[in-house]
Specification:
The structure holds 2 protein chains of 2 kinds. By secondary structure, chain A is mostly helical. Chain A is built from 8 helices and no strands. Chain B has 3 domains: 55 residues, Electron transport complex subunit B, putative Fe-S cluster (3-methyladenine DNA Glycosylase II, Chain A, domain 3), CATH 1.10.15; 94 residues, Alpha-Beta Plaits (2-Layer Sandwich), CATH 3.30.70; 73 residues, Alpha-Beta Plaits (2-Layer Sandwich), CATH 3.30.70. Chain B is built from 10 helices and 8 strands. Chain B starts with a helix and ends with a strand. Classes of the chains: A mainly alpha, B alpha+beta.
Chain lengths: 192, 265
């Protein structure tokens, strides 16, 4: 039950984009079309789930026994970078169209602070292996939810008559702010 | 001391394992790429204007290498670009005539009649939905709301008293303005042709005269003046066949409304 709570908390209450303000760069960069936003969401989900699992193993079975836990940041970044590289190769092979659409944002998942954020939170909260992975998947689904919602809104906004000063990024940032306020509504949904 | 050794060893080991894994994945997921794509891409101008009909230079390069697009598909690069690409692709270059967009209307606010003042959206399409197809008395003429200028990525369109004028020096013949004009006034014309008809009106001479002092009235003087038989008047509008035109200038000299006039070459 507790695990399920952590999952929903990561998706809604502590949504990485909307409440923790992590991963804003791809959230604004790849949210022009629902299709690419969904592709980004899937890629981030894959990276986050695997990163949570691998960092848990590396941290608890390699760094802690050797009293090297202060190295966690470097080790986590190494793991995430390698995973992103793997995802990039895989997408380039399996879906060239998605590869084109994600463009520079695909290798930039490496620097997506949401990925490093989830692994560091797993470590800080002392989650076990299963909970770490659940938290990782939950956080990634929360990220996907936010970016897909944003893409849907932006697709509609694009067809509206907007003041020229607000075109593109200003209106997107305003939308993001309003979405964030809306997500505040979840704040008392789950008490951990 | 041991901490340093262990740190280096652990991080080194992690990096080595991931490196080997990625190396293996790199071979496993290798995408065979045509090396001609990169070569063609390096020849293309790289403006990513989309004038060729592809989203950018990268996609055009891929299409050329795959044989889906002609070697001279890039309207911006011109002859030189086409020749170099043809060399890469191992085919003979087709000669490529440099063209520039030209607005077939001469009616500005100074010489043509307006029925009302247009103060709506800066979009020719929107303006053309209004009564009589825009504010001008002539329903064939340039609206001047700026759709072609908005479409142009090279800053070649300027406005002279409400009339779009395209600078042939800056124009790359990408054709974006051609599709942007709701009145179909923009045409790609060979740059070497100096004489063009600055009118698209199919109205008869009397109506044209009432609406605009620069319009073609269909008097056929140019048709008779042309020694090369390049001009035909149809629907009260002169049309120059640029392949036959010898740039002699007789038509411009005799045109009563100066509709045909030498433009900058």
């Amino acid at each position: 039950m507790h695990t399920l709570m952590i999952f929903w908390s990561a998706v809604l209450v502590n949504n990485f984009v909307m409440s923790r303000f992590l991963g804003i760069c791809p959230f604004l960069g790849v949210s022009k079309k629902v299709e690419t936003a969904a592709g980004m969401g899937i890629a981030v989900t894959f990276v986050m789930a695997l990163a949570s699992a691998v960092t848990y193993i590396v941290y608890n079975y390699m760094l802690v026994p050797l009293n090297l836990d202060f190295l966690y940041n470097i080790a986590f970044i190494l793991i995430i970078a390698s995973l992103v590289q793997l995802v990039e190769m895989f997408i380039k092979k399996s879906s060239p169209a998605l590869y084109q659409a994600l463009g520079v944002y695909l290798p930039l998942i490496t620097t997506n602070c949401a990925v490093l954020g989830v692994t560091v939170i797993n470590k800080q909260e002392g989650y076990n292996f299963v909970v770490s992975v659940v938290n990782g998947v939950g956080a990634a689904l929360g990220f996907s939810l936010a970016i897909i919602l944003m893409a849907g809104i932006r697709e509609r906004i694009a067809k509206n008559d907007i003041l020229p000063h607000f075109l593109d990024f200003p209106i997107t940032l305003l939308t993001a702010g309003l979405m964030s306020i809306a997500f505040l509504g979840f704040s008392n949904l789950i008490k951990l | 001391m041991m901490t340093i050794v262990f740190s280096v060893a652990i991080l080194g080991a992690l990096a080595a394992v991931f490196g080997l894994g990625l190396g293996y994945a790199g071979i496993k997921f290798q995408v065979p790429e045509d090396e001609r794509v990169a070569l063609v891409r390096s020849i293309l101008p790289g403006a990513n204007c989309g004038g060729c009909g592809y989203p950018g230079c990268d996609s055009l390069a891929a299409a050329i290498a795959a044989g889906d697009a002609a070697v001279n598909a890039c309207p911006v690069g011109g002859d030189e670009c086409a020749a170099s690409i043809a060399e890469v692709m191992g085919v003979k270059a087709v000669t490529f005539e440099k063209k520039a967009a030209f607005v077939k209307c001469g009616g500005s606010k100074l010489n043509s009649k307006y029925n009302y003042e247009y103060a709506g959206l800066n979009s020719c399409l929107a303006a053309s939905q209004l009564s009589n197809g825009g504010a001008k008395a002539c329903r064939y003429g340039c609206i001047g709301a700026g759709s072609c200028a908005n479409a142009c990525k090279f800053g070649a369109v300027t406005f002279n008293n409400g009339l779009a004028v395209i600078d042939p020096e800056k124009c790359t013949a990408c054709g974006l303005c051609v599709s942007a004009c709701p009145k179909n006034l923009v045409e790609l014309v060979p740059v070497k042709s100096a004489y063009k008809v600055r009118c698209s009106s199919a109205d008869n001479g009397k109506t044209v005269r009432a609406n605009c002092s620069a319009g073609c009235i269909g008097c056929k003087i140019c048709e008779k003046a042309c020694g090369a038989g390049a001009i035909k008047v149809e629907n009260f509008l002169a049309k120059i066949d640029y392949e036959k035109c010898t740039n002699c200038g007789e038509c411009a000299k005799k045109c009563p409304n100066k509709t045909i006039e030498a433009t900058a070459v």
